[in-house]
Every structure is written in structure tokens, then in C-alpha cells.
Design brief:
This protein has helices spanning 38-47, 52-59, 91-95, 129-135, 139-161, 163-177, 195-206, 214-230; strands at residues 11-12, 17-21, 60-61, 66-67, 78-79, 82-83, 98-102, 108-112, 122-128. The protein has two domains: 11-139, no CATH class; 142-230, no CATH class. The protein is of the alpha+beta class. Residues 1-6 and 172-189 have low confidence and may be disordered. The chain is globular and about 55 Å long. It has a three-stranded antiparallel beta sheet, with no helix packed on it. It has a two-stranded antiparallel ribbon with strand order 2-9. Bound molecules: iron/sulfur cluster.
């Protein structure tokens, strides 16, 4: 049975009643921009045996970045109606049909996104948002997103705080984080997102072994960004 969501999307929190049963029709993988964060990129990169910078160059659009789509707006990983990267699909695909918002103060809410008009997904109320997220394997993605977002807020604060610091940061970000960009690449494309590239440079500088496991890469990536923010004028904890 096909059931569309309500016309006015309610606001949910984790304990609220919600369920969604995917009909595996593949229609929700059309006409979407799937955003990618550092953890999404690492999971997808390892799915293909790649490092994060190479994954970005092969499978992501520069803006966003977003997953690349075909000419008619279908996700490049939709094969014969099924997700070819299901085990490592991005957070946006796991949380769908919900969207998640977190304020700077840490308040988290969810809303239903507009469904595909012919989706075979079924909405219900026989579970909770928290259980839906758990079944989708979202918790490690959410933890990583929140940790990176805290760093983004610190950078944003620093950029806002003072003009000299803002100029300095604006100049340093592409210089420090963009070194993994290939010839002719816009270095901003890989800022913050190429965790393997930044961790590789960090390990070289500190004469450390380069980690491969995703959790270890994330830890060192966050540590590298944290140290860089601490050393940069205007960056506040
Ligand atoms: S990654 Fe998979 S679930 Fe997400 S849009 Fe692409 S095909 Fe669909």
C-alpha cells in the first residue's frame, strides 16, 4: 500500500512515535541531492577500497558535496532499482524520510521530508524515532556528524568574532586542508571532507603511522582539526 506523509510535517524528537517501512521501490533515490559529510565519505570510500579524496573525485559533485547523479537525476549508486552501497549508504539515506536539524545549542528535531508521490514506503506510528534510527544503523553517523558540527561551529565563531582572525582563517583553510586536491581541482572541494588526506599530512608531520580503520581516521582527523583551530587566531572552545 502506498501512503504519503502528512501535508504539514510535524516536529519529532527521538522519543516520539514514528515508523517507516521502506518498500524498496527505489523512487526516493530520484531527484535528490544527497549531502556527504566526512564520515559518509569514509564509509563509502572504504566500500570501494578507496581513500576519501579519490572517492570525492570519482563520485561526488563539487558543490555540497553531494553524491553524483545521472543526467536524469538518479543517484549513481541506484542499480536495477536497488542501492548498490546499502551497507555504507550515507546518513541522509538512513534518516530518510526524516530530515534532522540540530541547533548550535544542541537541540535536535526531526521532520518528515516530502515523499516521492509514488513511493511504496509506509508511514506508521508503531515505533519511535530513536528505534527507527537504530534500525537504520544511523547512530555512528549521528555521533560523527555531531562531533564535526561542533568543530564547524567553532570555526564559524572564529570567522565571526574578529575580522583579522576571519581573514587569517579564510586564507589558511584552503592552504592547509586543500593540499590533497589534484592539479586543477578547487582546493575548497576537499576542505574538511578529505579525512584521509588531512590525516596523512598530520601523520607525516608528527611521524605517526597512518591509520586505516574508519574510527581511527575520524579520531585523528578531529584531533588534527581541533589542534589547528586551537592554534589559529580567534578560534574559541
Ligand atoms: S546512496 Fe543508495 S539509498 Fe542513497 S540515494 Fe543513492 S541509491 Fe538511494
Amino acid at each position: 500500500m502506498t501512503a504519503a506523509g502528512p501535508s504539514v510535517a510535524p516536529v519529532y524528537r527521538r522519543d516520539d512515535a514514528f515508523s517507516y517501512h521502506c518498500g524498496a521501490c527505489g523512487r526516493c533515490c530520484h531527484g535528490k541531492r544527497i549531502p556527504l559529510g566526512p564520515y559518509d565519505i569514509l564509509r563509502l570510500a572504504r566500500h570501494f577500497g578507496l581513500v576519501s579524496g579519490e572517492f570525492l573525485r570519482r563520485h561526488a559533485e563539487r558543490e555540497g558535496p553531494w553524491l553524483r547523479t545521472t543526467g536524469d537525476g538518479v543517484c549513481v549508486f541506484l542499480e536495477a532499482g536497488h542501492c548498490a552501497v546499502h551497507a555504507d549508504r550515507p546518513l541522509a539515506c538512513r534518516v530518510y524520510p526524516l530530515g534532522r536539524w540540530v541547533t548550535a545549542a544542541g537541540e535536535e528535531t526531526f521532520r518528515e521530508l516530502p515523499p516521492h508521490p509514488e513511493t511504496e514506503g509506509r508511514y506508521g506510528r508503531d515505533s519511535t524515532v530513536a528505534e527507527f534510527l537504530r534500525r537504520q544503523g544511523a547512530p555512528p553517523y549521528l555521533e560523527a556528524v555531531d562531533r564535526y558540527q561542533a568543530l564547524f561551529y567553532r570555526l564559524f565563531d572564529a570567522l565571526q568574532a574578529e575580522s583579522p582572525g576571519r581573514q587569517e582563517l579564510a586564507g589558511v583553510v584552503p592552504e592547509m586542508l586543500g593540499q590533497a586536491a589534484g592539479e586543477g581541482e578547487d582546493p575548497r572541494f576537499v576542505e574538511w571532507l578529505d579525512a584521509d588526506g588531512m590525516v596523512g599530512r598530520y601523520c607525516e608531520t608528527h611521524q605517526l603511522p597512518v591509520p586505516e580503520a574508519i574510527d581511527s581516521v575520524v579520531e585523528m582527523h578531529i584531533q588534527a582539526i581541533d589542534e589547528w583551530l586551537n592554534s589559529t587566531t580567534g578560534a574559541r572552545r
